[in-house]
Amino acid sequence: MVRPALAAGRAVEILNFFAAHPGGAYTLSELHTALGINLASALSVLQALEDAGYLVRHPRRKTYELGPALVALGDAALRGNPAVDLARAHLRELADEFETELIASVAVGDEIVILAVEGRPQLASADVRVGQRLRMVPPLGQVFHAWSPPAEVDAWLGRLDERVRGTARIHLPPTLAAVRERGYSITLDSPTRTRIGDTLERMAEHPREATLLRDRLAELAAALGEEEYELIAVEPDTVYDISTLVAPVFDAAGRVAVALTLNGLEGVTGRRVTTHGERLASVARLVTRRSGGRAPE
C-alpha cells in the first residue's frame, strides 16, 4: 500500500474540517489547535489551498473559509454520483411526511460521512450535521455491511476492542441477517445514543476539540454493541423510542452507495415503525433503480 504524502493528508484533514463546520471561518492558530498540525506545515497547505481557490483568506481578520472553486468540484461529484443527488431530492419530502429528520450518508473508508440533512429529529439524542464524520465502529454501519462479504465484515469487527469483539461476533450475524431480510435497519434509542448526540453537537460547536471528540465518538459507538441496539423482532402494539431507520441505496455493482436514515421517532408503535421502515425502503429502492443501481441477490 502506497503511503500518502504528508502534505496531501494534511490538505484532506483541513478540507474535511471545513466541510464539518460549514460557514465557519478559522485562523491559522485555530486550525493548528483543532487539527494538531504544526504551524509551518498548516500555513504551507493553507496557502496552496488558497491559491487553488479551495479556501479564501479574509484580508483583515486573517481567517480562512471555503472558497468558490469547491462549488465546481461539488457539482462534478454530484454528476458522477447520481444516487447521492437523487437521494437528496427525496429527503425534504420524507422529512415532512414523517415529521422528523432525514439524513443521507455514505461510507468512506472506516467512516460514515453525512452528506445531507433535512427536518428536525423528534428525539434530542439524534443530532447530526452535514460534513460530520463518525468512525464506523460496530454496531454503527450495519446497513453498509449487511450485504458485505465475510472478509469485509471481519475487518469491520476488527475495529472493536478485543474485550468486546467476541461478544460482537455472536450478536452481529443475526442482526445483519435481520437487516437483509426486511431491507432496512431499526435501532433503538438509548442513553449511549444520547451521549453520541451530545458529543456530535459539541463537535459542531467547539471545533477546537474535534480530535478529542472523534476519539470519544469511537468509544461510544463501541459501547452501543453492549446494549440492545438493533430491533430484530418488532411487536405491532409495543411502543418504542426509535433512534434510526436506515435503508440502503445500491450502486450498479450491488454495493451500498448511500444510506437513507430516518433519525428519531418518539413513542411509536411497532406497527407504525414497520410502516415507516417500508416507506423509507421503497424510496431507497426507487433511487436505486433511477440511478442505475441493483439490489444484490
Q: N- to C-terminal separation?
A: 32 Å
Low-confidence stretches: none
Radius of gyration computed on alpha carbons: 20 Å
Q: Structural class of the helices, strands and pairings?
A: alpha+beta
Task: Give structural notes.
This protein is α+β, with helices and mostly antiparallel strands and 297 residues long. The protein folds into 2 domains: 6-72, Arc Repressor Mutant, subunit A; 81-290, Beta-Lactamase (2-Layer Sandwich). 50% of the residues lie in helices and 20% in strands. The protein contains 11 helices and 9 strands. It has helices spanning 6-20, 28-35, 39-51, 69-80, 82-98, 142-145, 150-157, 162-182, 191-205, 210-224, 270-290, and strands at residues 26-27, 55-57, 63-66, 101-108, 111-118, 133-135, 185-188, 239-250, 256-269. The chain has a 6-stranded antiparallel sheet, with helices on both faces. Strands 1-3-2 form a 3-stranded antiparallel sheet. Strand 2 (55-57) and strand 3 (63-66) form a beta hairpin. Helix 1 (6-20) packs across helix 3, helix 2 (28-35) packs across helix 3 and helix 5 (82-98) runs antiparallel to helix 11 (270-290). It is globular. The chain starts with 5 loop residues before the first helix and ends in a 7-residue tail after the last helix. The mean pLDDT is 87.
